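go over my protein:
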Amino acid sequence: MSQYEPIDYLEYPSSNIAKTKAFFEAAFAWVFTDYGPQYSAFEAAGLQSGGGFYAADLASKPAQGGALAVFFSEDLDVTQARVEAAGGIVVKPIFSFPGGSRFHFTEPSGNEFAVWTHE
């Protein structure tokens, strides 16, 4: 695998950074550093440098069909329960595909993510 140009950092819009942070802290134990009221960076998400959420007026839902970040889980049921307990909304229940299963959810600002596991 190439050592050059790896994905290093991801950024997402958030209509409510406090709710977005609370969700990811509860569901995935992410760690946040605030850089003023308009931006919060995250760590402990499996990316080398992490990522961040920036304040954005999301009068409409984030665009569907864009890039989809997919988490890995050893136990989808446990992860789905944590996502729902933290306030996430499952938008595609667990389904199978060749090589595994996954589900999709949205976090409080409406960004869609997925979680998969191998068979």
Q: What stands out?
A: Strands lie at 9-14, 31-34, 39-43, 50-55, 69-72, 89-97, 100-106, 112-118. The chain has one domain: 9-58+67-118.
